[in-house]
Amino acid sequence: MLDVGKWPLFALLPPEELRLIRQACVFGSAANEAIYVTVNDEVFALGTNCSGCLGLGDTQSTIEPRRIDILCGKKIVSLSYGTGPHVVIATADGEVYAWGHNGYSQLGNGTTNHGLTPALVSTNLISKRVTEVACGSHHTIALTTEGEVYAWGYNNSGQVGSGSTANQPTPRRVSSCLQNKVVVNIACGQLCSMAVLDNGETYGWGYNCNGQLGLGNNGNQQTPCRIAALQGINIVQVACGYAHTLALTDEGFVYSWGANSYGQLGTGNKSNQAVPTLINMDKERIVEVAACHTSHTSAAKTQSGQVLMWGQCRGQAVAYPHLTHFTSTDDVFACFATPAVTWHLLSVDGDDYLTVAQSLKREFDSPEISDLKFLVDGKCIYVHKALLKIRCEHFRALLNETDEETIEIHQFSYLVYRAFLEYLYTDTINLPPEDAIGLLDLATYYRESRLKRLCQETIKRGITEENAITLLSAAVKYEARDLEEFCFKFCVNHLTAVTQTQAFADMDHDLLKNFISKASRHGAFKN
């Protein structure tokens, strides 16, 4: 249901389990913990379980998913985490549960004892319905349906908004200048908190030594302060990094402020900004901004679906928004953030979230609704006649002449034939170069010119001194002229090493004669 393939923590889960995931969150100091929800509304956790943050009742790490029984059926609508880590969720019923690290009372239960299992956060919230939660390093804030904000936990810089720097052991309403105002969006940096009102005003409080509150100074604030520099600008979303803030306007512009040592403000330099600065997005309308309090990475998505990233990207400082090939801001954090955690709860809802390409990819080799199977080397591959007819002339002719529900294939291996059928569903191939030779043979046989080109590209990327002659032989056999020329040049450029391989010793006599002749014409044997 949800593509979590870019997060390595999920790599060991079997495909049938991955297909059931509807929501997921990856967190922890090394992206080494994860919680996910299935389509059956069961909740599972896996990872190192630091401070009991997996909510399993113990502190044992687990490489295999274990179910969090108390959360099953709760319907999670919001999830956030700290660096302890502690984890906080809001359910569809408006309840708040928290567990994990509690050294600063960030679980809101009035103690500083770590919580090994999810516990209801009830003080001052029992009659409230919470819709969104956000965590800083060791503090938590929650937004209710009435637009009120409650905060608790670590308060050394005023991030709880209580007017003091004493830690807050239980939820307390953030009032002061937010009294009688309606908050619609919240976010937390490591030690600060941000809120957006229904009228587009933005308020910040807590740590401000990097200017992350956007107030034009570097003084900490113990109560919410309106960002005056955004007067007349209607903000609809804020996102906080470790010590920087991004704000999205209703017109699709993005402002940034705070720390900038990695270029995370997207301004083209590395100078901190204590006031909101407009980022140049080349006239692209932005519909989402993304940041996470654990990193210095920034991302945004345009109205046309393009994804931009900047800031700390795998150790590099990217000072301007950089256009990526990603389709979601989540991918930026999976591939380029340090640690590679999720910036919000990954979630899919309803039945219309998949693109056509994603739907086809999911149904490949799935027996549930297939109407045809191929039997290759004693193994079954499940497919759909209509798709095969649309995608391949060979199958259009074949399937118009037969009503068989099982077709046996003898001239190709299971690995190669499955890769071919998967290509028809996905437009991609995923094979090592040696196996791509077999697929090249198949592509030639079925006259699939694009597949033939993809195979050649795969083989080119994987050529080595050991396999160069084998690949050259295949290129000659399947009349792949471009590939043949590529392999030949590689062999000539690495002639000494190539001629010492077993493949060269076993080379076909005619091919060897042609190779030596052609290599001579290229001056390969001149002193």
UniProtKB/TrEMBL annotation:
Residue spans of the RCC repeats: 41-92, 94-146, 147-199, 200-251, 252-303
Pfam families tied to this protein: BTB, RCC1, WD40_RLD
Domain BTB, chain residue ranges per copy: 370-433
SUPFAM superfamilies, per the entry: POZ domain (SSF54695), RCC1/BLIP-II (SSF50985)
Record key words, sorted: Repeat
Tagged with keyword Heme: no
PANTHER family, A to Z: BTK-BINDING PROTEIN-RELATED, RCC1 AND BTB DOMAIN CONTAINING PROTEIN 2
Name of the protein: RCC1 and BTB domain-containing protein 2-like
Species this protein is from: Sinocyclocheilus anshuiensis
Classification lineage: Eukaryota, Metazoa, Chordata, Craniata, Vertebrata
Protein's gene: LOC107670520
